[in-house]
Specification:
By secondary structure, this protein is α/β, with parallel strands linked by helices. It has three domains: about 100 residues, Alpha-Beta Plaits; about 300 residues, Rossmann fold (3-Layer(aba) Sandwich); about 180 residues, no CATH class. It contains 21 helices and 19 strands. The strands form five sheets. It has a seven-stranded parallel β-sheet, with helices on both faces. Strands 1, 2, 3, 4 and 5 form a five-stranded antiparallel β-sheet that branches. Helix 18 runs antiparallel to helix 19. The longest helix has 19 residues. It is elongated and about 105 Å long.
Length: about 625
Amino acid sequence: MKNPIVGILKIIYSLKCLCRGCNNIMKVIIEIRASKGLSEITILDSSADLEKVGLSLDRTYKPIHVKAPESGDVKINQDSEDVYCIRGEIDEKLIPELEKLPNVLSVYLDTPIAPFNQPTTNHLFYEQSEVQGVCPIPPCDCQHLVPKGSLIEILGQIGVVDMWNQGVRGQGVVIGIVDGGIKALGRVPDGKLARVIGGWPGDWGTKADWNEHGMMTATDAMLTAAKSELYDIRISDAASPTGVISNALAGFEWAIQEHRTSGKPLVLSNSWGIYRESQDPNYARNPNHVFTRKVVEALDEGILVLFSAGNCGGTCPDNRCGADNGPGKSIWGANGHPGVMTIGAVNKNYEFIGYSSEGPAALDSNKPDFCSFSHFTGYFVSDAGTSAACPVAAGIVALLKQADPSLSQFEIKQLLRDTAYDIGPAGWDLHSGAGVIQPYEAYKRLLPAKEVVFQNFHDGGWHLGGAQILAQVGRPINEIIELLIPAKAHVVASGGFQDAASLMDSVIGNPTAAMIWDVITKFQAQLEGKTCLKNKAILVQHILNTGIQLGWAQRGSTNGIPKANIMGNLRASKLHADALGPFVYSTMTVYITRAMNRLQQVPNPIQAHTAIAEARTKMYDYLAGKKCYISQ
């Protein structure tokens, strides 16, 4: 029950205001110490001392348990005390008195927060600056109301549809949409989204504030991971175009407790933040801010957390950014914490979006992490801003989490960084991060690995190439089959091909040049893009192709193939071998060079046969014992 003294205290406070002037009432979060085991009501009732100095306590706000700061002067008796956050309003001039109270650890501004863009002609939520800065990765896209394609087209382009076709659609994973609210089917008559299974506050699923910004982000996440489920974590304030960070603090606490209860993998998508450092310098730059600590608590709990980078990139920043735009002045607070995934934006054509916020972030110099997609038709005609990019990335994270439930936040972030398509300066850059996420490339690295043997790639290719030449010039079938039988043994033993035995049996039964070429192209296609998992520089298709080209050259030299063709084969074999760097053939390609020199010196290619054969043998022998693991 409410303390009866509170009313009297408010009257006294009002009298103080008449005398001293109370013209700057601030919403604040108060971090307090309390004895262990107290109920929420008791914690609120025990805060009467705070009200004595002028705090108007919000008794509708449930006290939020937080971990004590790991640094600073705050001393907590871990055995007998806990730390909680409450909120209220107070005159700015009275905050020093509030901070002096013995149970008060810190007082924070209840920071106003806002969504990162609402792409409609109503610019209440997104006002693009007319001033155009320099584009860091030309060409930049600043046309947020003009979609460059649909989200479904993008998902096909980046391989998400391929993941769906393999049964990966987000099953068993929950995506928490921390935003302006969702109208859920079954919760309100005009509900639109299915698979919303819970949320915060208690009337979750019933409102869509922020001009349906949360509906946009939820739709984009669900279009990406259609079999996942949703939490509606509504942090908006229906009375204004903003919200307050105490709502986000409570929403994250709810998510943490729900995760502990359900055990379901959980991804939190956050398409909101602050636009200027001056909105709250403490939150912008303090890694020990109470909300940022709560985000770290979620990460420590095993929850996957993504934040939009923001809409204050220097080319065409949102007007709300003011002077805080461009590199080093556009990613604030938890949006740039080292532990979270910080998401920038490109369009369908991989063009950098000119208002996508740029690093370094206030809390981490290596931000953003990577870019996702925006400026597409999804919930709206044009879902825009880093607001749209973040939930698409969250859906992709949900897919990867389904594919391998053991993956941690760090592992998924590193996987997406390692497989990103670089669009800016080589390597990571402060505009696009590691580049544009490539979910299917990331997914392929999660597939079970298999061991492949380099010698078998090389000599399997050599036998196939030689057999094709014999078939092409009309040599007897038995001579062709004499090469195809060991070719089969090598390609099967290599470990790199599906259906290798049956494919080889089909060509042994009909050893024409066309059939052999068909098998070669199928094997090449199976190795397309396959690299050794521990050394991405080794593209194993190059080993197969080195052998094929040497097989063509060696058999061609004794079967009337023109000298120019054989020289082309030798050059191609060296190009493939050199493309592997020093990791596979090392200096053995010198023998190809010798064969080329010999071929150039003689009138008849048969006179270079011995040199070509030596190149094949030396390179094959050098590969003895070399192998690696590739994804299935």
